[in-house]
Amino acid sequence: MSGRLQGPLAGVRVIDCTSVLMGPYATQIMADLGADVIKVESPDGDTTRYLPPGPEATRGGMFLNVNRGKRSLALDLKQPEARAALVRLVEDADVFVHSMRPGAIQRLGLDYAALKDVAPGLVYANLYGFARSGPYRDYPAYDDIVQAASGLVDLQARLSGGEPTYLATVVADKVTGLTGLYAILAALFARTRTGQGQEVEVPMFETLVSFTMIEHLCGSLFDPPQGPPEYPRVTAAARRPYRTKDGHIGVMIYNDKHWRAFFHAIGDPEWTRDPIFASMRSRTQNIDTVLHKLAEVIEERTTAEWIELFRRAEVPAMAIATPADLLHDEHLEATGFWNERDSEFGRLRFPGIPTRFSATPGAIGDPGPALGADSRAILEEAGFDAATIAALVAGANRVPA
Predict the structure, then answer these.
(1) What local confidence, expressed as pLDDT, does residue 4 receive?
(2) Bridge-partner residues for 13, per DSSP?
(3) Which of 9, 232, 312, 396 sits 20 to 30 Å CA-CA off 267?
(4) Contact between residue 211 and residue 175 where contact means Cβ atoms under 8 Å apart
(5) CB-facing half-sphere around the CA of 99: CA atoms within 13 A
(6) How far apart are CA 122 and CA 190, in angstroms?
(7) How many C-beta atoms lie closer than 10 Å to residue 258's C-beta?
(8) Looking at residue 219, what DSSP letter applies?
C-alpha cells in the first residue's frame, strides 16, 4: 500500500463497490482524508470512465477527479472465485460500501447477512435509490429521477415561470454521497465504543426528501396544517439575482439589522417606512412586494457600485461568478484551494479539500486509476498465491464493451 496516506482516516480500509457519482463522491472524500479505498470494478469498469472529455478513452476528467486517491481492483463478480476473493478482502476491511439495488447485491451473495459473520466489526453501507422497506425498492434511480420525485423539481418551477427544471448540478447524488459519508463515519465512531460493526442504509429518495423538506415542510409541520408545505421566501417569483445597470448581483438582505443598514446606505427614502418592511414577519408575509421593490432599486446602480455599498453596510452580496471565474477567484487562490500537480496526463487541477484539520490534514491522491491497475498488488497484500492472482486477473481481463 502507498505510504502517502495521511489524514484523520489513515488506517481505515474501504472496499468500494460503488459506481457513477453518488458512492464514488463519498469514498473520494474518505480517500482525501487518508482512507485506503479499494475501488472494486467489473471488467467493464465504472461507467464514468467513459464520459468525455479525457486524456484517454477509459479515464475521463470526471472519473479522474471523483476517484482520485483510490486503488482499482478489477474482479468479475459473476465468477464464484472472484466473489470468494472479495469476501476474503472484506475480512481485513473496516468499511464495505456499494450502490447496487438490494436484489442485485443479495444475488451476488454480498449482502450484510453474508458478510457480518466474516467481519463482525464491518461497517456495511448500502447507497441506493429507495429504502428497501417500501414499494419503490426495486425502481432504478438516477439523479434526475430523484430530483423529480423529491419535490425539488416542482419547487424549482416557482422560479422558472412554472416550467419544471432540474438543478444545474447532480444534487441528489452529491447530497446522498455526503449523507452516506457521515453515516459511515458515525457507525465507525459507534464501533470504537461497542466493538461492533453494523449495517447502514442510505437511500437517495428519502435523503433528498429530507434535504428538501427541512425548510419546506413549514406550515405542514403542524396537525392540522397551518399552511402549505412551502417556504415562501425561497420560492417567491422575484427571488433571483438582481439586474444592475451593467449586469447582475446576488444580494441577501435577510434580518432586521441588514435592512436597517441597507436603508441607511441608500439614504432612507420615503418608501422604506412602509410597514411591510418593518419586521421579518411582515417582510415574509409580503415577500413578493418586498423583493420586487428591491429589484427596482438595484437597477439604479452598477454592480461595482452596489458591491462597494453593500461591503460598507455589511450586507451579504456577491457578484455573479461563472464556473470559469472560480478557476481564478482571488479568495480561492489565496487559500490554496485549487490543487495543481503534474501527472502522466500533464498538468491537472483538482478542487481542494474544503475542510481543514490542524493535527491530521488530508491530502489529495493521484488521479483516478487505470482499470485494474492495482489488482495484483492488492491481492498480494491479502496473501493470495501467484496462481490464484493470475486466474483472478485473467478472469477480469477482457476488453470493455
Answers:
(1) 58
(2) 36
(3) 232
(4) yes
(5) 25
(6) 12
(7) 17
(8) G
Q: Are 7 and 29 in contact (CB under 8 A)?
A: no
Alpha carbon distance 143, 150 (integer Å): 10
Give the count of alpha carbons within 13 A of 287, CB side only.
Answer: 17
Q: Any idea what the Cα angle at residue 245 is, between residues 240 and 251, rounded to 5°?
A: 35
Q: Which amino acid is at 251?
A: V
Whether cis (ω within 30° of 0) applies to the bond prior to 224 is yes
In the chain, what is the straight-line distance between the N-terminal and C-terminal CA atoms, in Å?
Answer: 30
The amino acid sitting at 43 is P
Confidence (pLDDT) at 239:
86
Closest of 184, 218, 250, 151 to residue 26, by C-alpha: 184
pLDDT of 398: 65
Query: At which residue does the C-alpha cell 416557482 appear?
Result: 158
Euclidean distance between CA atoms 304 and 295, whole angstroms: 16
How far apart CA 5 and CA 69 sit, in angstroms, is 9
Read out DSSP for 38-106?
A: EEEE-TT--GGGGPSS-SBTTB-HHHHHHTTT-EEEE--TTSHHHHHHHHHHHTT-SEEEE-S-HHHHH
Q: Provide the edge-to-edge strand list for the sheet that holds 248-251.
A: 242-243, 248-251, 317-319
Q: If residue 374 lies in a helix (H) or strand (E), which one and from where to where?
A: none
Question: What phi, psi does 229 have (nearest 5°)?
Answer: -80, 80
CA gap 20, 128 in Å, rounded: 12
Going by C-alpha positions, the residue among 11, 30, 180, 20 that lies closest to residue 93 is 11
DSSP assignment, residue 200? E
CA distance 82 to 212: 40
Instruction: State phi, psi for 271 to the nearest 5 degrees.
Output: -65, -20
Residues of the chain scoring pLDDT < 50: 1-3, 399-401
pTM flag (> 0.85): yes
> Can you tell me which residue has the cell 442510505?
202
Q: How many CA atoms lie within 13 A of 215 on its CB side?
A: 7
Question: What does 246-276 look like in DSSP terms, one character per residue?
Answer: SSEEEE---SHHHHHHHHHHTT--GGGGSGG
The dihedral of CA 267, 273, 276, 279: what is its sign? positive
